[in-house]
Design a protein that fits this description.
It holds the Pfam family cNMP_binding. The protein is built from four helices and eight strands, in the order ααββββββββαα. By secondary structure, the protein is of the alpha+beta class.
C-alpha cells in the first residue's frame, strides 16, 4: 500500500516515531462485509486503512447501531492501548479495505521501551478516542433520544 499515513498520525507523531512504528506493520486486505473485530473481543491489533469501515455498537433488542464511518488513512481501533485490551465497538468493512496491520503487543512494548514514543502514541490514540466517544454519544442520542442530540449537522 502506498500513500500518506493518517493525517492524525502525521500531526501527532514526530517523523522519527512514525518511521520506527512503520517498521512493524504488514499489509492485509478485507473484502466488503468482513468483520474486523467484535465488541468485547480481544484487541490485539490495530490498522491504518484505505476503504470505508463502519464502527458499530450492540444495542439490546435492536440491530447494531452504526456509530461512525472511517475513511481513508484513519486509525481503526484504539482499545488495544488500554487494559483490559478488549474492543469497545465492532467494525465492518463497507468497501474492500487494504490496511497496515500493527501488532498491539509489539507497539506497546516499543512504547514502554521509549517513554517519549509512548507519550506521543498515547496522545494520538487519546485524541482519536475522545473524538470517537463524542461521535458515539451524538449518534446514540440521534438514534434513541426523544429529541436527538440537539446538534445541527
Amino acid at each position: 500500500m502506498t500513500g500518506p499515513l493518517t493525517a492524525t498520525m502525521l500531526r501527532a507523531l514526530p517523523a522519527e516515531h512514525r518511521q520506527r512504528l512503520m517498521r512493524l506493520p504488514h499489509e492485509v486486505s478485507f473484502p466488503q462485509g468482513a468483520r474486523l473485530f467484535e465488541e468485547g473481543g480481544r484487541a490485539d491489533r490495530f490498522w491504518i486503512s484505505t476503504g470505508t469501515i463502519e464502527l458499530d455498537m450492540r444495542v439490546p433488542g435492536r440491530q447494531p447501531a452504526v456509530i461512525e464511518s472511517l475513511g481513508h488513512n484513519e486509525l481503526v481501533g484504539w482499545s488495544w492501548l488500554f487494559a483490559p485490551h478488549s474492543w469497545h465497538m465492532g467494525a465492518e468493512a463497507v468497501t474492500p479495505v487494504r490496511a497496515y496491520e500493527f501488532d498491539a503487543v509489539a507497539v506497546r512494548s516499543m512504547c514502554a521501551d521509549d517513554p517519549d514514543l509512548g507519550r506521543t502514541v498515547a496522545m494520538w490514540v487519546g485524541d482519536v478516542l475522545a473524538h470517537r466517544l463524542r461521535s458515539a454519544r451524538t449518534r446514540l442520542l440521534d438514534l434513541y433520544a426523544p429529541y436527538g442530540s440537539g446538534s445541527l449537522r
